[in-house]
Amino acid sequence: MSTAAAIIDFSVPEELEAREPPEARGLTRDGVRLLVSYLNSDRIVHARFADLPTFLRPGDLLVVNVSATLPAALTAHWGNGVEITMHVSTRLPSGLVVAEFRTVNVSAGEAFALPDGGSAVALAPYPGSTRLWVARLDLPEPLLSYLARWGRPIAYPYVRGRWPIEMYQNVYATVPGSAEMPSAGRPFTPQIIEELTRRGVFVSSVLLHTGVASLERDEPPYKEYFEVPHATALAVQRTEQGEGRVIAVGTTVVRALESSVDTAGRSMASRGWTDLVITAQRGVRIVDGLLTGFHEPKATHLALLEAIAGRAHVQRAYRAALDAGYLWHEFGDLHLILPD
After folding, report:
1. Could you report the per-residue pLDDT of 118-155, keeping only the tens digit for each?
2. Among residues 35, 43, 77, 269, which is most buried (max CB within 10 A)?
3. Are residues 218 and 315 in the same domain?
4. Residue 244 belongs to a domain with what CATH number?
5. pLDDT single digits (tens) 11-37
6. Number of domains present in the structure of the chain
7. 139: in domain
């Protein structure tokens, strides 16, 4: 899908790339900036994330993704001894995984040596992708404990230095499984969640384990495992019946909620694998607003933003963010899209 890049023509200047966590820049988690854009009026407000509770109303429902980030990057060696990085993206049935062998061309059947006597064999290209492989791992211990021992967080070249996995975790994350941080939730603190509750804003959860993103290629998202609990589906239904708004914390939450809709268009409980790609043509049925980071020009997430906000609004908000010097990427600033 290549339409996402056409939503808005822009580039991210190097000075607007967040190269380290806010804490390394002298900020608290909730000290990052927050651009609030209102759909009906196109009004733009500049704030700090700590101000989030003041933009929400009693009866609103925030839905968060409780998937925790894995240290999913491993050092691997080809048979000729060349060192590469392997990203473990998605756990599949039968003990297989989806893996990305970074910056190298791989052929079916090639084997790679992993730490502590482990190995990986690239079996076949993952359907629909030119960079991902279905791989078989042979490890001396279960995958999650092996990654905890030998893995590190996935980090791209714009990140300066190596940071511990704690810097890539959301405070409410409870279920390990994401290859990359569902980063829209990173600025939350227990104090902000407590303040939201005090103001009458409800918080519910879904689960969606994110796979490895692509910075180099314009690829649509592929299948990811998700769960929408019964309690969350009921909370969404109650919110829709009242005067509250359903606000998704991150594009992963949008994908999970919009993948769990009955024939009448109501939120329902379900679990499984979703291949839903949300576009302006498909639209959204459940979500009224979105809290998200700022996405790269080629990111298919821009199509999802257009489905919620419309192309003209996304263009206006991104121009405002660029003009005001907001920071991009997982350690950067946030964008809250709300109805008026």
Report:
1. 999 999 999 888 789 999 999 999 999 999 999 999 99
2. 35
3. yes
4. 3.40.1780.10
5. 899 999 999 999 999 999 999 999 999
6. 2
7. yes
CB 56 within 8 A of CB 199: yes
Query: Is the pLDDT confidence value at 207 over 80?
Result: yes
* Structure confidence at residue 218 as a pLDDT band (50, 70, 90): low
**Residue among 56, 91, 115 nearest 273 (CA):** 91
Residue 221 placed within a domain: yes
What SS3 class is residue 246? strand
Q: Residue 141 maps to which CATH number?
A: 2.40.10
Distance CA 133, CA 100 (A): 6
Beta pairing, strands 67-69 & 175-178: parallel
Domain that holds residue 255: 3-69+163-338
Domain boundary pick from 150, 173, 196? 150
Query: Is residue 148 classed exposed, middle or buried when 0-12, 13-18 and 19+ CB atoms within 10 A define those classes?
Result: middle
The verdict on 50 and 80 lying in the same domain is no
10: nearest Cα among 314, 306, 216 = 314
* Residue burial 193-210, b: 16+ Cβ < 10 Å; e: rest: bebbeeeebbbbbbbbbb
Residue 295 and residue 236 share a domain: yes
For 239-254, how does the pLDDT look when each residue is reduced to its tens digit (9 = 90+)? Answer: 999 989 999 999 999 9
